[in-house]
Amino acid sequence: MRETRFQCPYCGVGCGLFINEKGKIKGDFEHPANKGDICKKPVYLPKIYEKGRIEKPLYRESKSEPFKEISWEEAYKILKRKILSLKPEELYFYISGQLLTEDSYVINKFVKGFLRTNNIDANSRLCMASAVSAYKMVFGSDGPPCTYEDIDDADVFLFIGSNAAIAHPVLFKRVIKRKRQISDALIITIDPVETETAKKSDVFIQIRAGTDTVFLNSVLYVLYKKGWIDYEFVERYTEGFDKALQQARKFPPEVASSICDVKEEDIYLIAEIFAKSKKLISFWCQGLNQSVNGVMKNIALINLHLATGRLNSKGCPFSLTGQPNAMGGREVGYLSNGLPGYRDVRNKEDRKFIENFWVVEGIKETPGPTITEAIDLILRDEIKFLWVVCTNPAVSLPSLKKVEKALEKVFLVVQDAYYNDTVNFANLVLPAAQVGEKEGVMTGSDRTITLCEKFREPIGEAKPDWQIFTELAKYMGGENLFPYRKPEDIFNEFKNTTKGRLCDISHLSYKDLPARWGRKWLYENLRFPTESGKAKFHPAYFDLASEKGEFILLTGRLKNQWHTMTKTGKSPELLKGEVPPFVIMNPKDAQELGIEEWDIVKIFSDKGEIERVVIFGNIKRRHIYAPFGYPREFGEPTNILVSDRVDPISKEPDLKYAGVNVKVEKKVLK
Prior knowledge:
By secondary structure, this protein is α/β, with parallel strands linked by helices.
C-alpha cells in the first residue's frame, strides 16, 4: 500500500509521519526526530480534513452584512484595490509558524520586497521571540546548539517553564527512555504547577511565577561561592562573566529563596547538579519566553551553561520550539526585523544582499511594528488593512477586548483552512490548503528539515498559501519577482539565500530530506558568530510586573489540543477530558473561598471576566492555571484577562502572568 511522508503539523518536535491510502497515520522509523514514535494528536488528523472547512472565497464590505461567495478573480481585484489605495505603512500582515517554509518565504518576499514594508509579524512573536533574542545575544545567532541525539547520552534533564510531557510528548518519551537506561539519570522540573512533566520527575521545585531569573542568578552565585565555575572554559570561550556575576551576587540563596518562595537547599542542589553531572540538557519553552522578563530568564539559564562549560559533549541549553515550523519561519526571517538566511533588516549588508538577490530596491532598514504594537496602531487609525494567515489572533493574542476592537475597526483579510473566531471579524475570507493538500518543508526544534508530501487534493477552491500570494503579485504586476510554478521552485530559490550562513541548506534538495542544517553541535569548535568569536555572558536583570488581584493567572496548553483548537477541537476523541473549560486551583486556596471541586467560578479583573470549572491540583498557593486555547464556542477566551505588556527586548507578550480575582458563580450539585 502506497504511503506518503509528511511532518506532524502540531508541536515543534517535528515528528516524521506516514499516511497510507486508507488514511491511517503512523510514525516514520527512519526519521531522526521521532524514530517511529507518535503522540495522540496527529492520529485523528484524517478525520477532521472535511470538518468546518472554508471552501470558497467570501466577502462583505461591511461587517454587519452576511458573507457572499465570490470568485478568486474578484478576491484578487478587491485585494489589489485595497492595497493600492493605502500607503505601505497602513498595511499589516500577520502570519504563522504553522505555514510551510515555502509559504512563509513567498509572503515575506511579497511584503518586504514587493510592497516594500516591514509591517509583518508572525505568531512566533507569542512563543519564540524571547529565546531567539537570547540566543542571538549570547551566541551571535539563532538556532539550538545541540540536537535530539544529545538526549541519548545525557544524565540530567532540567525542564524549566516547559510541560514537555504534554506539549512535546515524543521528545519527553525519549528522555524517559534514557532514564530507564541509566539508574542515576535525573529529571528535574521547575514550575509553579505540578505538571505531568513534574509528576514524572525526580526533583520538583515549585517556584513562584515570574521569578525564574532570580532563582537562576542565585544558582550562578552558589557556583561562584563553591568554586564550581569552569574558569578554563570561561576564559577561553566566553566574555562578560564578571558583569553577569555582579548581577547574580545580588541574589544569594537566602534572598532568592524568599523572592522565589523555594527552599535554599533547592538552589544549592541545582548548582551542584550543574557542577557535577556528566551531561546536562536544559529544556525550556513558554514558561520562560512568555514574560515581561523573558529574555533575561533565557539569559540567566544560558549563563549557567557557560559558567560550567556545559556545551556540546557536556550539555546544551535547548529551547523547545512551540510550533511545527517556527524554526523554518526564523530561517526565512518572517518576523518584523528578519530577512532570509538569518539576516536582519537593520544590517546594511543583509539588506543589500537580499535586494540584489530578489532584484528589488528599497528594503526598509527599520523593523516594522510587532503584532501587539500593530493592534495599537489599528486603534489609532494608522494601520487600516490587516491580512491574517493561518492563525487565530481573536483567541491567542493578549488583552483580547482591545484586540476585538481592532479587528472590528480594520479591513480584515483572513486566510485559513478552517473557520475560526477571527473569521467572525473578517471582510474577506480566503480558503487555504492545509498540510497534506500542498507540498513543502518544515523545520523542527533540532534544525531537522522534513518534506511534507501532498497526499490529497485541497477541498473546494482552497489553494496553497504560497500560490495565493504569487497569483496576487502577478495580478499586481509582480510576475518577474514570483515566477514559481511549484513549491520546489520556491525552495530552490530560498535555499540559495542561506549559502555560507549558519543555517546553510544550499546543498540540499527535496530528495535529500529529512536532513539537518548545521552540525550535530552547531558550535562544534566553540567558535561563535560574534565579533570576538566568543559566547557572551550578560547580566540577567530581574523585573516583575506589578499586578492587582488575589491570584496570579498562569496559562498554557491542553494535553490533547493544539493551540486554539481550530483542528484538534473537531475530534471527539481528542476532546475527551478537555471540556468543559477548567481552572486548576490549590485546594487550600479554594477552601478559604468556600469553593469545592467542580464548582463554576468567575475569574475576573479590570480587563474582563471568564467562567471556568474548578479542578484541584498541586499548584503554588495564590496561583491558578487556565488553558488559553478555548474558542468562543466554549465561552469567553482566557486571554481576555492577559495583559499586552511585552518584554522590552523581544517584544514577546507577558502571557503567563496576570493578576485576577476569583469568586464562586455556581455551586456543584451534590
